[in-house]
From TrEMBL:
Coiled-coil ranges (or none): none
Record-linked PROSITE patterns: ADH_SHORT (PS00061)
Protein name: Putative oxidoreductase
Pfam families membership: adh_short
Keyword terms of this UniProt record: Oxidoreductase
Oxidoreductase found in the keyword field: yes
Family label: Belongs to the short-chain dehydrogenases/reductases (SDR) family.
Origin species: Rhodanobacter spathiphylli B39
GO molecular function: oxidoreductase activity, acting on the CH-OH group of donors, NAD or NADP as acceptor
Stored InterPro entries: NAD(P)-bd_dom_sf, Sc_DH/Rdtase_CS, SDR_fam
Length: 251
């Protein structure tokens, strides 16, 4: 018997797509959003329109986001959990060679769209004592070359999550930040502008996190007893660890 509804952003790929599978298997209804409508439709076709509602729009388009929210079918209108997962990294160049348009796209998606979505759903999440799960990254805690704006956008997500907890004190709404390390999804293909070989090379032999691993983590958080809040989860593949600082001699 389906009892709860989750809105999963970035449901067309990676962590979001795996989370759709996990939540539907667990009996939830899912609103699946992303830009690629055909991928979202495949989820509806696989699970049925009573289990998955596809909401295809660009997260950076606030009017489209609001229209998708207003157009939710009645069975999907009461939202218990928001998974703020849609996001991306673009480029690996150092800041001084980076493309400003890519920086702005990361901020618009990872930061501005995430807070807009959260602001939109907060009233009903409070009414239903719901939950917000934000997908941040280890890139928000550990600096690395080429991480520049991507890492900074994820530091925002981590801190926004903790600040939300303070503001939502006493409401019963739970807020969690998941901070994954290296995970094999479409992330690196997107980051490199479509270079599948670069993606394959990055993950080769590294036994990276899988999308299913993160879906399981989200599911675990969503099913905590109501008196518990998982504040932050940082998870890496065993093969990955933090490296030391760098020194430029006689610079
Ligand atoms: P994927 O590229 O596989 O998935 C990204 C998802 O975000 C897609 O469904 C994509 O949908 C959606 N998305 C991106 N831009 C927009 C937009 N403007 N509007 C709507 N949806 C958008 O990567 P992951 O699954 O790895 O990434 C999910 C989250 O996890 C991201 O926030 C990422 O930063 C984070 N993360 C990833 C890690 C990794 O190593 N893979 C590690 C730590 C965090 P579509 O293209 O259809 O719009
Ligand atoms: C993605 C993880 O380490 O590639 O957020 O930046 S990392």
């Amino acid at each position: 018997m389906t009892s709860k509804t989750a809105w999963i952003t970035g449901a067309s790929s990676g962590f979001g797509a795996a989370a759709v599978e996990r939540f539907v298997a667990g009996g939830w209804r899912v609103i699946a959003s992303g830009r690629r409508a055909e991928r979202l439709q495949q989820l509806v076709d696989r699970h049925g329109a009573d289990k998955v509602h596809a909401a295809a729009f660009d997260m950076r388009d606030e009017s489209a986001m609001r229209a998708a929210h207003a157009a939710l079918p009645p069975a999907f209108a009461a939202i218990d959990l928001l998974l703020n997962n849609a996001g991306l990294a673009l480029g690996t160049s150092p800041a001084q060679q980076a493309d400003l348009a890519q920086w702005k796209q990361m901020i618009d998606t990872n930061v501005t769209a995430l807070v807009t979505m959260t602001h939109l759903l907060l009233p009903q999440l409070i009414e239903r004592r719901g939950a917000i799960v934000n997908i941040s990254s280890i890139a928000g805690s550990y600096a690395y070359r080429g991480g520049n704006v991507y890492g900074a956008s994820k530091a925002f997500v981590t801190q926004f999550s903790q600040n939300l907890r303070c503001d939502l004190h006493g409401t019963g709404v739970r807020v969690s930040s998941i901070e994954p390390g290296m995970a094999e999804t479409e992330f690196t293909v997107v980051r490199t502008g479509g270079d599948q070989a670069a993606s394959d090379q990055l993950y080769a032999g590294a036994h990276p996190i899988t999308a299913g691993d993160i879906a399981d983590t989200i599911w675990w958080i969503a099913n905590m007893p109501p008196h518990l809040n998982v504040n932050r989860v940082e998870v890496m593949p065993v093969s990955q660890s933090a490296a030391g600082l760098q020194v430029a001699r006689d610079a």
